[in-house]
Design brief:
Length: 316
């Protein structure tokens, strides 16, 4: 399933591996406010699948605390204004109602029967997490994460950021203090973005909800024998999964709105992109054993590295 939201062009929308480091890093960079929420060419199909997840498996993908409602309402107002102003080809408003011209879905700013964050989850591709300071510590107060590849983010509601990052090797040890400082310094006028990426045999951006890590590892093992026989097929069996995250301060509630938007493209898309191929090879070559295992990429490490080396050599 090609899910880059750019189906007419065989180039991933984002290629963060070009500037990433082998160690986990924050990598924040400012964005223009009009680029906060993104509407892709595959928006209708993405929303169909996202709605299906929220309808059928909501406990895995949505959770909130009652005291997050003021921040949820503020986020809903800002998202609605942004959609109408910066995406007029996709959204229109009439009174308190914002309507998607692509899917027909509506969001009513006066509707209190459904939590605002859940309303937005049915309207836009972005997932959101809300963080608020409690006793000097930022805590996750609400989260909607239909693209989850671990289930950890929604489970983190009520906990601090360190708890959410606990399974990620060395992340809190190396960057915990800096993460807290950066989150505390986010401003409403200067939204930022950062990226995560991984290689997976799961084509869709929607990982299985039942133990996603185990599902990813099982999918890796399923293709291992084929890739060992013919590493040249790695581009056919593996996908590049990129997660774009944005951070913005909500001035009234002082909450931090943390968005997530996930893309998936065949690894083969990079076969003619020598800069990306060489960057990925260099990064993986310097990954710690812990990081290889955390992403389950260690299962296909040998054929994957052979494919990358061959793609780099093909370009001379």
């Amino acid at each position: 399933m090609q899910s880059s939201n750019n189906p007419a062009v065989d180039v991933p929308v984002y290629r963060p591996y070009r500037w990433a480091a082998a160690d986990f890093q924050l990598g924040l960079r400012p964005i223009r406010p009009e680029n906060w929420i993104l509407i892709g060419a595959g928006h209708a199909e993405m929303m169909r699948q996202k709605r299906e997840r929220l309808d059928n498996h909501r406990p895995f993908y949505y959770r909130s605390s009652p005291d997050s409602l003021p921040a949820q309402r503020e986020l809903r107002e800002r998202v609605a204004a942004h959609l109408v102003e910066d995406h007029p080809e996709s959204f229109e408003s009439s009174g308190s109602v914002v309507r998607s011209l692509v899917t027909g879905r509506t969001l009513d700013l006066d509707d209190d029967s459904t939590e605002p964050l859940l309303q937005m989850s049915y309207l836009i591709e972005e997932d959101f997490m809300l963080l608020e300071e409690v006793g000097g510590t930022l805590r996750i107060k609400a989260a909607s994460n239909a693209y989850s590849s671990s289930g950890r983010l929604v489970a983190s509601v009520g906990h601090d950021v360190e708890w959410a990052h606990e399974p990620v090797p060395q992340l809190t040890h190396k960057l915990g203090g800096r993460i807290n400082r950066v989150l505390g310094g986010i401003h409403a006028a200067t939204p930022c973005e950062r990226f995560n990426w991984q290689i997976t045999p799961i084509a869709t951006v929607f990982f299985p909800h039942d133990d996603p890590h185990a599902a990813n590892a099982a999918a890796m093992r399923k293709i291992l024998a084929e890739l060992c026989r013919d590493p040249a097929r790695a581009g056919e069996f593996l996908w590049i999964r990129v997660e774009r995250q944005t951070l913005m301060r909500l001035p009234d509630s002082n909450a931090v709105a943390f968005s997530l938007h996930t893309y998936s493209d065949p690894l083969s898309y990079l076969q003619s992109d020598v800069e990306s191929v060489r960057a990925i090879w260099a990064l993986l070559n310097n990954y710690s054993e812990e990081r290889w295992k955390y992403s389950e990429m260690d299962i296909v490490r040998e054929p994957l590295m052979i494919w990358l080396e061959a793609a780099a050599r093909w370009h001379g």
